[in-house]
Amino acid sequence: MTQFSRFLGSLLVVNGNSQLILHGVKTMERSFSSIIAREYDVVVVGGGIVGAASARELKLRHPRLKMAILEKENEMARHQTGHNSGVIHAGIYYKPGSLKAKLCVEGMHLMYQYCDQKKIPYKKVGKLIVATDEVEIERLAELHSRAIENNVPDIKLIKGIDEIQKIEPNCVGLQALWSPHTGIIDYSQVTKQYGLDFKEKGGEIYFNFEVTKFEKSNDEDYPVLIHSKDGQNIKSKYVLTCGGLQSDKLAELSGCPRAPRIVPFRGEYLLLNPNKAHLIKGNIYPVPDPRFPFLGVHFTPRMDGSVWLGPNAVLAFKREGYSSLDFNRIEHA
């Protein structure tokens, strides 16, 4: 969830035609002990991939903006960005004509271009969506039509186990969709490179800055006062919150309704025996069951050579709890 707010009720329009008359400001690395007032045109709260990408893009479009990212951890991409299957999707599943369908296909191409430019490793291992009965074959045909309508590149319907095993020798099924441009990547690396790009353009990143309060300041030029857990303050003209699992809390802090509230679920994976990892070449997915809002448990190769099987979806008792033993009573009060 991403929000763009200013406490005075006005809106900053960010697009190619916006006219922002700002003086260039030389930026520098600062510690929290610095006596220099920290004042910014735009502050982004959250150093995951959404926050980092948003800050980078805004800085590229408007280089004269004085900007900062505030991250509560000691590095970027510590939570949702670094805890996922790491798949570069091709746009198969989404409703034709929707922004998700359009942006997934565009984003896949842009991600590969960016990774090539920055020399970030990835692998185009492809993806098989495998049907194992007649009901799934019908759903697979619908997915195939949807993928074609979404302009998913080189999507192919494969019939028969012999054709399937030309791609995945150890996979059994009746039919499958083959998406050769689906890939795998470590999104933590992408996020950290976004952060480097942002800093190279003059942006600043503050780690260990956990936002606890927003309030209206007495400074008309910098009307938003941002407080941290350890007593630090930053002033800004505008605040963009990209808080991931904490986004509803940040919304409430900014004066917005907290609803809808986040109910945390944890995805759990099995790790394939390393001696058997060679049996899986690429992503292998089931045909999704429309009764559930998930793509299903799947095999996913990782950049480190391991293979994961999952995820399931388990109600979590802590927002950032990655173990079944993690519990936070206050979050569930």
Automatic annotation (TrEMBL):
Cofactors named for this entry: FAD
UniProt KW keywords: FAD, Flavoprotein, Oxidoreductase
Taxonomy, superkingdom: Eukaryota
Catalytic activities: (S)-2-hydroxyglutarate + A = 2-oxoglutarate + AH2
Enzyme Commission number: 1.1.99.2
FAD dependent oxidoreductase domain mapped to chain residues: 41-316
Matching SUPFAM superfamilies: FAD/NAD(P)-binding domain
A Gene Ontology molecular function term of the record: (S)-2-hydroxyglutarate dehydrogenase activity
Family: Belongs to the L2HGDH family.
Protein name: L-2-hydroxyglutarate dehydrogenase, mitochondrial
Organism expressing this protein natively: Hypothenemus hampei
